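Consider the following input, taken from an annotated entry for Reverse transcriptase domain-containing protein (Anolis carolinensis).
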Amino acid sequence: MVLGDFNIHAEATLTGAAQDFMAAMTTMGLSQVISGPTHQAGHTLDLVFVAGDKLVRVEEQIILPLSWSDHHLVSLRLTAPSNLRRGGGPIKMVSPRRLMDPKGFLTSLGVLSAMEADDSFDALVARYNSEMTRAIDMIAPERPLSQHGVTPAPWFTGELAEMKRARRRLECRWRKTQDGSDRTRSKAAIRSYSVALRAARKAFSTARIASANNRPSELFRVVGELLHPPGGGGPPDFSATRCSEFAHYFADKVAQIRSDLDVGLEALPGEVTEASVCSILWDSFQLVQPDDVDKILGAVRAATCALDPCPSWLLKQASGGLVDWFMPIINASLSQGKFPSSLKQVVVRPILKKASLDLTNLGNYRPISNLPFLGKVLERVAASQLQGFLEDADFLDQSQSGFRPGFSTETALVALVDDLRRELDRGSVTLLVLLDISAAFDTIDHGILLGRLSGMGLGGTALQWLQSFLEGRSQMVKLGDTCSDPWPLTCGVPQGSILSPMLFNIYMKPLGEVIRSFGVRCHLYADDTQLYYSFPPKSKEAPRILDQCLAAVLAWMRVNKLRLNPDKTEVLQVSRMSDRGIGWQPVLDGVAGAGPQLGGPPGFGADA
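Applying the prediction step yields:
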């Protein structure tokens, strides 16, 4: 906005210098909004220019003569979109966190006398949502608040803030006086502040790394944040149109994959889509006790979903007094074999895969799901009991790692590297194929998965609960405070779910059997599959065996509604330098060399 007494006659009819001046302001995107004379002589001298007249609107304009001036009083009331207001962010309704006291929340919530165990299941969930909403509104009613654009760094202390202010005062004094002694003091303050700033940042990072000792996942996250500071990662455009574009893209991507797999699908001899006949070994979940609920509430991550009636962190802090609220819902869900319909909706937030990627390309975003807190509690109860059943039945493949006790990322890497080094010591050549599956979690077929669950001995309300968990789901994209329309999900398991990786392991179990039937070893970690075959350097059979194995893997994936991504599939040769040049090129999707190029992994010394 530009305003003041420009001392030109800016009436409706412009001439001379006034016309040239107004034309120059227009070329800079500035529009004049004053209408009417602002001087007692009847001329318009006091002008107000705004940038973007479509964004800033004049709601009210008052021009009043003054007895003590020849210029009139000009009063304007302007409206502007939220992104032009002070604070750098939109004005939104929030519940102040400082008012969210766990004790006050429990007092407002009251006792559970009104929630009876014999109430209908849907009534229990509806009552939970309404009472939680009522309690949070009582202790922390929503109020308008501006989101501030800059959040101080966690290591920026009050002492550093005072040093920064002192540095600025000395600099301003020197620029005003141009005195040599003031310049010396200003430079000394700048150096002291820079040294203190680096020391504070280093001390904070050192403390974070030390706190992650013996916790590899936490250490990996801390190092990742230090090397690649988070910058939001989300798309800059929060409009409803952009929201809908993301929703259509994510939905169409899965639909296209399923459509491509359905075209020309042929059944294979001995395919594993048929569920094997098995007697029922587990037909119901065990009901939980108060101690179980308290332990589960403490284990669930406090990531609040937009669909939650109150913040998850508040529920965790008040968990000791909420056992009686959660236990009837959990036990009703398990005993009736139902997953609440109101908890089947997923909120998806698009996150940029890498900071260097194009922000306007929808394919560069990964959909990150956020689930309601109550749903995550129910999932954790089911997952813990399902995990116990899988361990007792010894169902999962020994080559499957991830999301199971004793089979972590570290053990998978140790096993793979150890196998490769052993074969290298024997003088063998090993070809390692790293398979990449497109949107693996999103394309799982519910019918096939339920058949696998039934084939491993699940039945009764246990199988009904898992079927209810899978079916009737929907999701919507959320950008800022804008949400897309929800769309139904007919396949896949929700990403970000506690239970989904376990179900995915069950779904992928037959793949290991297919690979090993050719004498090829493998490791499976979630949707990452590595198959490798070792052979003497002069063997002529190895390429043929690997081609047959890959053909069977591709056929199995097509029948099981999974699509291999040739462009991201890699092939590595591990051998001594003298044994290079095997010359094998895998055949993927019927095209030789369509995807990976043969290469060698680093870190194996003399091998390629």
